[in-house]
Structures are given as structure tokens and as C-alpha cells.
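Response to reviewer comment R2.3. The reviewers asked that we include at least one raw input/output pair. We reproduce the pair for Protein kinase domain-containing protein here without editing.
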Amino acid sequence: MILNSVKDNTAVEGINFNICSPCSFEKIAKLGGGAYGNVYKILLPDGKTYAALKEIKPRREEMFGFSTSTVRELFTLAKLEHENIIKLVNVCIEGRQNGVCSMILPTLMFVMELCKGNLREVLRGSIIVTEAQRRTIMSQCLSGLAYIMHIIHRDLKPDNLLISYDGVLKIGDLGLARFKVTEAKNVHYTPFIGTVNYGSPEILLGSTDYDESSDMWSVGCIMAELYTSTVLFPGSTIVEVFQSMCLICGSITNGTIAGIETNKNFCLVENLPQYRISTLSAHLKTHISSILACSLIERILRYNKTQRLTAEQALNDLYFTLNQAKDENLSELLQERFNFDVFQLNRHEFNPFAFTKVFR
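Raw output as returned:
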């Protein structure tokens, strides 16, 4: 896919790219940024619809100017449409000469639905999260995961669980996501993916043989943090996280994770103090009053990935089914960032404004 040679409104593998100029929209405020680029709140040409613009900086060391994770996120989002997955509305490329991208590496821009904030902000905020709101957060997170069961997110954490202005949770930041290969044998994925505090034992061990059950481990960590407001397995390094993990869940051995000795990071746990008995149940019950919540977290946080609940199984747990109340509106958990109205983003609203629809 050669992005720097596409023309206006050219379809590449089912996705239409619109080469646009900065004047196509108005940047209102910078929402964040990092090594990849910046995220802005923008006002679209209709003068009333707001969106988020993820501006990807070109990288000369990459073959086509964009990293593998950027291209992967683009094509992953373009294939997904679910109320609990962040919506990619348009893709733009800035920089052209006579209708064709110039030789200067172009800037790739994702136009996405605008969200009010993320779960990390909720956990750090002063608003008390109710039991019904916790159940809604976990239900919507699991619903999104159940929908993308053929995809491994690989970086689930509170920062990547967004909350829309309509009060709905959205799974975002799929830059590290990979489609699960089900037909081929001996498929190996990249090791060391994600954030250490939410990484599954097999990923932290450096295994390349993992699946969507790794995301479920992250869900268990997030759910525990949602109740306690503290990271379940603290630490700034893999070794520190393993120490926290073993202290709560017991030692990681060949009996708990088959073939552990073959993993490249086995040396990191080999010499740790031995904790034979898991104290996870006692730890959770000390900090969480809901017995059903504790039970669900326990059955997700299993060292053996084959014993972890799937997203669909978790959704059918008594934690959710015993009280089938209507989902709570989550927007009240976040303070308003800006003082103007935000309109619901809709793909079809962009057609009159020279924005190209992203096709599935």
C-alpha cells in the first residue's frame, strides 16, 4: 500500500483516501500527543459538528512514511463497526502537488468520533463510581471485546477505554491490534506488547504464542482497578510487575503455565521468591464488597490462559445477569472539557463537506 502515491479519492484495498488541506477543518484544541503525532479537537466545515483528529507524523525510516502500527490501526478500524468500538469516520492525507501527493512525506490523519474522556480520568477523578456504573463499564467493554473476538487488542488499559458524549464506553487505540490467525499453525506474534501493569503473564514472559485470552487478563486487571482505584499489579518494570503478580496470585511455575521454561523472559521469574498459595481471592475480598465482582475477576485472572473466561462467557456471568438493569449513562463521570455543544458524529453527515466515507 503506497500511501504517498494515491490521488484524490482513490480507493486502496476498500478504503477511500481524501487528500485534504488543513483549511478543511478548524483545530479547536490539542487533546494529547506523543511520538506518533498529535490528537486535536476539530470543527468540521458544517460549523457545528466536532470530531477528533489524529495526526500521524511521517517517519522517513519507514518504507511508506508510516509505521506498521499506524497502517494496522487504519485497516483494523476500517473493518469494525460496533457501538463499543471507537468509530473511524474518514482518512485524510495532507500534502499534494498538482493533485498528487508531493515527494515530501505526507501527514496521515484519522478523523474519528470525539469522546469526552477515558476511564483513566474517571479513576483519577473525584466522582464516586456507583455499582451500576461499574457494571455498565465492564459490560460495554466486554461487549466490544466479544465483537472483535477475531482480533487481539494487545494494549487494553483504562487509558484506551474512551467514554463518548453520549455516555457510552468505546474501545480505542488499536495501533497494536492484530487479527487472529485461526487456520495457520505455529503462528507467532510480536513479544513485549502492551503496558506492563495490564499485560498477561504469557506476554510478559516474552511468549509469541498468545491469543485473545491475553486481552481478558487485561480486563480482569481493569475491573479490579475500577473497584479499588489502584493498579492491581503495580510496578514500572516487568520484574516489578511479576513480583506484584506472584505476591497476589502465587508463583509462576511450569505447573501454572505450561512450557514456561521456553519463554525468553523465564529468567525474570525463575529467581523470584516462591509464593505457593494464591491470595487473590482474599486480596479482592479485602478491597471489594461485591462477592459477584470478586468471583468474576478471579475466574478471569488465571495463569493458565485456557482457563480464563472468554468475553462472551463473562457477559453471561451472574455479575451481569442477576441484575439486568438498563446501562447507565457514563458521561456524568467526566467533567466537561470545553464550553460548547458537541453534536453526534455521523458518517453520512460528511458527504457534503468533501470528506470521503470509509468503506468496510
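The longest strand covers residues 26-34. Residues 1-14, 183-189, 338-360 have pLDDT under 50 and may be disordered. Further pairs are available on request from the corresponding author.
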